[in-house]
Amino acid sequence: MSRNGKVLVAMSGGIDSTITALMLHDQGYEVVGITMKTWDYASSGTSKKETGCCNIDSFNDARMAAVQHGFPHYILDIREEFGDFVIENFVDEYLAGRTPNPCVMCNTHIKWRALLKRADALGCDYIATGHYAKINKHHNDRYYLSRGADELKDQSYVLWGLQQDLLSRTILPLGTYHKPEIRQMAIDYDYPELAKKSESYEICFVPDNDYRGFLKRKVPGLQEKVQDGNFVDKSGNILGKHKGYPFYTIGQRKGLEVTFGRPIYVTGIKPESNTIVLGDEEDLNRSEMLVGKVNWVKYDGITDGMEATTKIRYKDAGTLSNLYNDERGIRVKFYNDAKSIAPGQSAVFYEGDDVIGGGIIQL
Questions:
Q1: Same domain, 23 and 71
Q2: Which amino acids are annotated catalytic?
Q3: Apex CA 198: angle with CA 193 and CA 201, to 5°?
Q4: Measuring CA to CA, which residue among 263, 241, 267 is closest to residue 254?
Q5: 330 lies in the same domain as 355
Q6: Which end of the chain is more exposed for a tag (fewer CB within 10 A), N or C?
Q7: Percent of the chain residues topping a pLDDT of 70
Q8: How many angstroms separate the CA atoms of 303 and 111, rounded?
Q9: CATH number of the domain that 176 lies in?
Q10: How many structural domains comprise the chain?
């Protein structure tokens, strides 16, 4: 019987999840490792060699670490569940003229629920992952996320969708560490190759990082249906032809194949007319936005006018704002204009380092 309880650790075979499992094992938890197979690269239609979390080498690396340290390891196949939700959402959002964040959707709706279900089946008290974020408990008895100590690796942004039943049973051991410390731990545990292992930042089911090609393979005839739409300016004047509205994102400057003697950007996407609006950089500035599908984390709601720092993308530093309740979600009003707000992306509200909540940008 362990002194701290039994924990199911999601192990991808990478350095972060492996060190998470070994740390918890050393701390006296009864560790069970699990590797989730979310995607089969052979079905992606690309010839790129498997990398990242869903290849046999990663499975073997995770299993070897478990065997060497004396705890069990399982492989959980969630490809069908993952594909039905995450990939369909990914395709549907682009076809609706929005820019999805599949990692957020996967964390929120698939991975954590799959982990918790298996944890219950195995009699585990907790689940743990190698994300760089912290989980705390507020005096109002709500569990909430905070930024990780390593600002460059902080992943609280992609976890905003986790609900209270998930947060209350999740352990994130890496939240107080910096990445160089984790690499040193790998060396100390006698895994020098793991310390050197490269990290993948690609979407797992788009291994060649070509989402346009992925959409074409997933939706037969898509190119023919949406090609030759118009580029227009904000007044509606036609500026040229594009290759199809799903293949562009708000703020995009490169790859437009039209020239105006100055930088020009995608400032709007109109799927109903297969139209892409182009404009100058200042046309990307917005003073407010609407956020829907909100999940509250630190509090169970807000009072109108609450001040928060709002992040509109993963690498965004955040913009000071006021939050207002709206029948369609939350209206965010920025103190200073935010740039390149893309519907479909996540907006996450912070109070200092703490996540108040988050949602999906609507408009």
A1: yes
A2: 106, 204
A3: 155
A4: 263
A5: yes
A6: N
A7: 94
A8: 32
A9: 3.40.50.620
A10: 3
CA-atom Rg of the chain in angstroms: 22
Instruction: Verify that 350 and 299 share a domain, yes or no.
Output: yes
Contact status, residue 269 vs residue 290, Cβ threshold 8 Å: no
Q: How many CB atoms lie within 10 A of CB 39?
A: 25
Q: At what angle do helices 15-26 and 179-188 cross, to 10 degrees?
A: 70
pLDDT tens profile 14-24:
999 999 999 99
Same domain, 45 and 181: yes
**Where do the DSSP E strands lie in the chain?**
6-10, 30-37, 73-77, 126-128, 133-137, 143-147, 170-171, 229-232, 238-242, 265-270, 275-279, 285-296, 306-311, 319-326, 329-339, 346-351, 354-361
pTM: 0.91
Nearest to 280 by CA among 319, 235, 336: 235
Give the amino acid at 352. G
Query: From CA 361, how far away is CA 345, in angstroms rounded?
Result: 6
Q: How far apart are CA 303 and CA 321, in angstroms?
A: 14
User: Which two tokens mark 15?
Assistant: 């350095």
| Secondary structure (3-state) at 126 | strand
Report how far apart, in Å, the C-alpha atoms of 323 and of each of 64, 184, 299, 312 are: 48, 42, 13, 14
Residue 97 domain-assigned (yes or no): yes
Domain of residue 13: give its range. 6-130+172-196
Same domain for 34 and 119, yes or no, is yes
